[in-house]
């Protein structure tokens, strides 16, 4: 169950155009180069991993110190609060700049994932897995999650670049920011229900 | 405000935007020269040319000029996508008053006022006055301004929050040698912004000043900026005889790095010109690609300002590039001519069409009405599909009066580009505009100068 949740959340993050596959496609289209698209994807995943791992490792270590129940409550409150803020706020990530080097692209992805609270969404999984891992479990969760994100984002990016075309955005790009906010709140509520395991 | 799917008027690429449905409404900024009654936003039916909506501003003396949408296709740009906002609000600066109005166009014909930004807010937060061009960018609304706050200059760009419309501040971090300002746009995928030059408030607000013009004191340079770092990169001088490079029309294809700018007049021979900017060896360069000569005319038929010259200058005051970057439209407000060029090779434009209407001496009537017509083709806008071109006839209050001293009139016209002929059904004029002078046209859903695209 835990593994499934981690993978599904990874896929969810991967599907979201704002998390990077769209940027990879744009970089490829700009230079008419699939190579440039393919080089971009690992950098985007790397930034995502750093963002997510920062949260999951911190939570895991905290859990080792304060115990599972306190961690679950803390995470739950944080998530519900952050999710509601995302739901109600009309602010969006601000950035100008298309011409980024690959390390800068990783940095962009780190910021984008962090601002969206990508790592927070995994908190219930860490919280439910108990303490005393000193961060190793948190890191493992982040790695598996990012792998799923990377695969899904990669498949979509290549498919859109090669076959589908960007016109699909006009109809298929549902407001994932709103879904995302609901997911954060949902994850928080889940973490707050005693005895739940992912 | 937040949608579940992207606003249907946003298109990823200019190719997609070409297939947009025809617009049904056109918004026109109209102003009262005397400042005795409020300026207005007029709404036209694009089929019939009838005025179907009208909104008076709450103040007088604003002198509306240019305006723009709160959101456009740049919301799809990949590094900060937010495509679930609506293209809904018109951001309408008063060029003389320095107020900026925000009007809601959703679910109503006549726009409704939702916010007024007072000159003090623009001045104190950004240091500017005389706001002009509005473009929707990925991180906010960019508004160029001709003057400083309580000062002649420098003019520059202010950034507005694109949800609250609050003035966030001055855009420039390092403006280098730039002082004069007018229009701006960008090569969004190359992180390059371009600005042009007109003059400071005192140089324009009471009409064109002959000594300044002959002294070559109006703008004659383009400035290139790093859009990301907000720093001046390079200035390119067209030569000081080429006075007033105004409207900037970069290629819509985001992989390209060229664009066109119209120059009002050369002080050497009163000709007008269109220049191409392009990259050459890692630097920006310009080249004159279209030259339109002045037309000799009997002195008695000329207004005072032109009598010493014995000729009518074309006065290219606006140009428009079709969304597919294939056709350039050039309006010659002095001679009363609108020209169409094939610019598929941007270095070698080929004239493919010309129509006469109005003009300082020509006074050519519209085919729908036999009477002589004052004013000339001035603001020119192209529909997204490239099939229709809209014109209005007023340039700028004080300048209208100099070049058309017996009255510039008020009219708008529409050209069908297939065949390049006037649409005889569409000719709102005279009292249709209730005594106001029409300036910029914005088309519902976007037009050729409203949207930036991040995908080729």
From TrEMBL, chain A:
Give yes or no: UniProt keyword Membrane.
yes
| Source taxon at top rank | Bacteria
Segments traversing the membrane: 6-25, 37-59, 65-85, 105-127, 139-164, 176-193
Alphabetically ordered keywords of this record: Membrane, Transmembrane, Transmembrane helix
* UniProt-recorded name of the protein: Uncharacterized protein
From TrEMBL, chain B:
User: Which Pfam families did the record assign?
Assistant: SBP56
- In which pathway is this protein known to take part? Organosulfur degradation
Tell me what reaction this enzyme catalyses. methanethiol + O2 + H2O = hydrogen sulfide + formaldehyde + H2O2 + H(+)
Q: State which Enzyme Commission number(s) the record gives.
A: 1.8.3.4
Enzyme class, top EC level, equals oxidoreductase
Q: Where is this region: Disordered?
A: 1-20
Single GO MF annotation? selenium binding
* Membrane spanning stretches: none
Family membership: Belongs to the selenium-binding protein family.
What name does the UniProt record give this protein? Methanethiol oxidase
